[in-house]
Amino acid sequence: MRALFLKPSRKCLDNMSVINCSNLSKRYDDIEALNKINLEVNEGEFFGLLGPNGAGKTTLLKILTCQLKPTEGKAEVFALDTSNEFTSIKPKISIVPEQESPPSFLTPREVLELVTNIRKIDNKDIDYWLEFFELEHMEGRVCRNLSRGQKQKVMLASAFISETKLMFLDEPFINLDPLVQSKVREWLKEYVEKGGTVFINTHLLENAERLCDRAAIIHQGEIQSLITLDDLRKQKLTLEELFHEIVK
Amino acid sequence: MNKLILFRMLQEEVRLNTSFASGKGFFSFPILVLISGLLAVLFSDVMMNDMGYKEYLQILHISAIFYGLFAGSLAFFGNEFLERIFGYFGLILGLSATQPITQRKITLLYFCKEIIFYTLFTMLPALLGALIGINYTDINVVNLLTFSFTLYISFCTGISFSYYISSFYRISTTSTITAVFIFLAVYSSMFYGKEITGSLDWYLNGNIKLLLLGLAIPIMLSTIATLNIQEHNTNGSINIIGYKNRFEEYNQTYSWARKISMPGIIAKERIDLERSKTGTKMFLSFLFPLGFLTFMNWFLDKGLPIQIDFNTIFYGVMIGFFGTMLYSWLNSIDTPHFYSTLPIQVSDIIRARLFLFGTITWWIPLIFMALISYMSNELNLLPIGLIVMVTVGIYIVNYTAMSTGLKTNSALFDAFVFIKFFLISVPPMIAMTILSLAINHKPSTILVALSVICGILSLLSLTFYKRIDTKWNNESFD
Question: Which of B439-448's residues contact partners 24+ apart within 8 Å by CB, and which partners?
Fold first, then answer.
């Protein structure tokens, strides 16, 4: 595990909210992608947003990462309005989008150099991340010629090297082989243990169950259920059972 | 089945275009074309008096060929850009990869769809505008319909020529260049001493054989193109391995430019430009219209007793205007989606690309200007031509960057954006073209007038550049 910002352990943290949505709605023409979403994610939490395809997960993530403006309501990240505080929010977050799209004509090493250069952080960890994702053998190859899984690894490495306190991941495990999935899961767990916050969009319930402290199930643009995973376990319910119950 | 595929392809085309521009913007385009047709007829008397009857008709035919070429280029080379800009982009054209239909057949259907689409969305509205216009002129309706038919053949020639080129481009660059030269040689030998197109010769001189020849050309071109389409093509233009790490080196090289944009972004864009081999494509995209213009100039000079003096200053205006193409190429190299994960703004990328336009791609227009002035024995006009070229280039590229951002090609599909672009670009170009053609009559007056226009354009360029941040700071990369 690389030295990150190394904040005190999450146990020591008070429950400061890093993400806050109030009455958040987004419409595309006649389609209500999000309808009056109210949500709060605290610092040091591993939060999952679960839902079927087209439920509004990516739309919410794009609003939270300043890529989309809501039609109504407000979204705040680190108490900053995502609609107009772009320049203050972006340096504090890292993003792995749904579509793996590293720069086509750069090699993985050059991509990480670009990221550290723009974020003005030390680039001494580049070799570590290339090795972590088994990309060191890809020296001299541009991302255009990598497989989808390898491209996804470059996207994850770009996010992990960024040393931010909050990470937004949209379906990060898609296209990854089981071994790498396991490595990524372990790293993310440790990241949260050390005070980082993860907001993950996924429909892979098994991964959500293993990782998340809390999760919201979103369906047809509305949050149907907000769950604490510990409580769910106490009730001897699985996330899959609950998900099927809500979405069916 | 073919009818269904054709219909779905037309639906797809409309949906594709409305996804680029607003629905209103796209559906306003035929109205814009209708107005152009109306104006062309209303001002036809003035134009004919000014230019001459034949010359006006020739210009219309040249424009129709160019329009066909442009439409065909978008159709047959556009998908590559779409893939790059948007990542994966599936069209019905790609159906042969998964369904039992041959590449040849689906490409032919795609070509038919292009002809139908442009006929419905541009040629028919233009004709309708012209038909409305003849109510206010003494132009005969039969003459108008006959001439429109000849123009349509020229349009089909242009679009078929694009199809023909694209079919060779799938094989190799060498075969493309050879095929272009062969066609131009055959065409000029067939029409030497005659009108610029067979259909125009028929319209002016009643030679039915030339009309048939004119009709045969697009059929021949599209037949050759269709037969050329193979099921398997290898694209060996991008190396698989062996790229040296360049980022840090270029980041250092451009550290002096940090006031314009981030050196890291400039370095990334520079690497993109090199590895995608877009420089060669930029060069060829200049070569093509300029070669065609020079060919037309030669054809009109040698083949017909008409003298139009396209001098070095005129080419300076044209080449400067083609700067839009260079900027558009810079926007077509790679998808900007990755930037959305970083703490940077759209305006940072626009400024980095403007920087590259000014520092890296300048050699392309310079080579053309130097060659044209040398070949025309006008080296004395080269300094003025270069000043005009640089001024027009900076003006038009700054406006394009300010108004279209990182999506130049798709933004210009919006009729409202296009009208603004037209109004900003065409008036100074017309003024400078007229002045350039009159340079030998009153040189000192013309030079003063050119200097004044260049001064105004420079000030406007600065204004456009400053507005980039205001307009694009809060936009997303999607």
Answer: B439/B311, B439/B313, B439/B381, B440/B309, B447/B384
